[in-house]
Automatic annotation (TrEMBL):
It holds the Pfam family PEX11. It comes from Tothia fuscella. GO terms for cellular component: peroxisomal membrane. One of its GO terms (biological process) is peroxisome fission. Keywords: Membrane, Peroxisome, Peroxisome biogenesis. This is Peroxisomal membrane protein PMP27. It is found in: Peroxisome membrane.
C-alpha cells in the first residue's frame, strides 16, 4: 500500500497527468508512436521479416496517423488567429514578423486541407481528388516549415550578434548571457525539429528521395524533441 501511494502521488506521475491532459502533449505522444512505427515497419521489411510481423506496425502507423488527423479538426482557426496576431505585432523585427505570418498562413492552409483528408480517411465522404488534396497539404506544410526554419536561422544570427556585445564579467551581463543561452538552446531545438520534419513533405513533393526508414527516424527525433519541449512547459 505504501509503495502504491508512493507511485500514485509521485511528482512525475502528477506531471505526466498534466502533460497528457494537453492536446499538444497527446499529439506529440501519438506522433512519436506513429513515426517510430513507420521506421520500424521499414526496418522489419528490410531485414526480411514476415508480413505477419510487419502488419501490426503498419497498422499502428496508419491508425495513429488517422487519430491525429481527427484531433486536428478545426485547428486551422488557431493558426488564422496566430497569423493575425503576428501581423499586428508592434515593434517586431520585420523579418521575424514576415516569417511568423508566412508560417501561420502555411499551417492554416495545411491544416484546412488536412481536415478535408481526415473526412476522407474516416469515411464520412470520399473525394475523387484526395491525392491532389494531400499533395497540396504537404506543399503548405513545407511552406510553413521553411518560414520557421528561416526564422530560426535569423534568430540564431541575432543571438550570436547580441552575445558578442554582452559583458559577462558584471552581474547584469551574466544574467543577460544566461537568458541568451536559453533562447539559443530553444531556437536550436526548434530548428532541428523543423529540419527533421522537412524530410516527409520534401519527399512527398519530389524534392528529395528519402525512404520510409529515414522519414520515420527523422519524425521520431522531431516528435521526441516536441515531447521534451511540451514536458518542460507543463512542469
Amino acid at each position: 500500500m505504501v509503495f502504491a501511494d508512493a507511485v500514485v502521488y509521485h511528482p512525475t506521475v502528477t506531471h505526466f497527468l498534466k502533460y497528457i491532459a494537453t492536446t499538444v502533449g497527446r499529439d506529440k505522444f501519438l506522433r512519436t508512436i506513429q513515426y517510430f512505427s513507420r521506421f520500424y515497419a521499414w526496418y522489419l521489411y528490410r531485414t526480411n521479416n514476415p508480413q505477419s510481423a510487419i502488419a501490426p506496425w503498419e497498422a499502428m502507423k496508419k491508425q495513429f496517423g488517422t487519430t491525429r488527423k481527427i484531433m486536428r479538426l478545426g485547428k486551422f482557426v488557431e493558426h488564422i488567429k496566430a497569423a493575425a496576431v503576428a501581423a499586428d505585432a508592434k515593434g517586431m523585427d520585420p523579418i521575424l514578423k514576415y516569417c511568423a505570418v508566412g508560417r501561420q498562413l502555411g499551417y492554416t492552409a495545411y491544416i484546412t486541407l488536412d481536415n478535408i483528408s481526415a473526412i476522407d480517411a474516416i469515411g464520412i465522404r470520399k473525394f475523387d481528388n484526395i491525392k491532389k488534396i494531400q499533395k497540396e497539404a504537404y506543399r503548405m506544410w513545407m511552406t510553413g516549415l521553411l518560414f520557421n526554419t528561416l526564422a530560426g536561422l535569423y534568430k540564431l544570427y541575432q543571438i550570436k550578434a547580441h552575445s558578442s556585445t554582452v559583458n559577462k564579467q558584471d552581474a547584469e551581463g551574466a544574467v543577460q548571457a544566461k537568458k541568451l543561452e536559453r533562447e539559443q538552446n530553444a531556437t536550436s531545438l526548434q530548428l532541428v525539429q523543423d529540419l527533421c520534419d522537412l524530410a516527409a513533405p520534401s519527399t512527398a513533393l519530389g524534392f528529395a528521395n528519402f525512404d520510409d526508414g529515414f522519414i520515420g527516424l527523422a519524425g521520431t527525433v522531431s516528435s521526441l524533441l516536441g515531447v521534451y519541449s511540451t514536458w518542460k512547459k507543463t512542469a
